[in-house]
Amino acid sequence: MSSKNKSIEEYQKAGEDIFHKLHLDSYPVSIKYIKDIENDIPLGVRRPIDQGEKMSICQAFTYARRFGRKLCITAADNFCTPSSVAHGWVPLTLEEFTESQIRQKWSKDVESEKRRAEQNYARNFKNLIELAYRGVIVSPLQETPVIPDSILIYCDGVKLTYIINALSYEHKRKYRIQSTFEGFGESCSKGGLMPFITRKAQIVIPGTGDRSFAGIQDHELGIGMPADFIFYVLENLFQTGAGQGLRFPLRQVLPRLNENITPGFKYMREVIDKKLNENKTS
Questions:
Q1: pTM for the full model?
Q2: Which residue intervals of 87-125 are DSSP H helices?
Q3: Cα 95 versus chain centre, distance
């Protein structure tokens, strides 16, 4: 199935299909990165700051997937300032970034934070700043007003396995999942930005911000992917091991048991059999 030149309507239909086929608890999220805040925001998409509010990106994901909201988050809207910097919306020097994180006390000591900052800054911020993106549009996929760059799906572990199986069905390098974990910026970075920038799907284990700000449930995991991957997932969904227990709903092997499993069961079986035999002869 070719995913090139797909229309908004086809992405919306894919959102409906994946939602119903996997019986998801919340809507898949459409994520679109924009460069022109004045001209790239469609009608019906609101910015929190226009109502005198601020909102983190992970909160916007929750509003989209659970309440059907369509939102645009920029550096001015976002109270989670590290994610604004991580997205390249506002340029900070390496020293400024390091100082902000030291004050947060995320790492053991100053040297630890410097090592983290040097690695992350070199890999992400310098390159992102040059791309000149300035905001993100977030909406439920089945109502997306734009062709998304990334798609984020939250689900439990079983449903995530089905998605991973679909992406791995042909073991193509293009769809190979590559993830690292730090416990910070999981959904905003790995759910949306990294799939967009690297063209690789990423497993999301909700991080500190997700759990503190966004109402993530304990059982929820996620996966972020380049938007066009959704058509490949739908094409291969439930194909892995079809007929061998991996169809939906999950068909697990049930053990074959008898009354010998416990002494009480065994005793009662003997009593029942005795009574049944007495009834036959009476």
A1: 0.86
A2: 94-104, 110-120
A3: 31
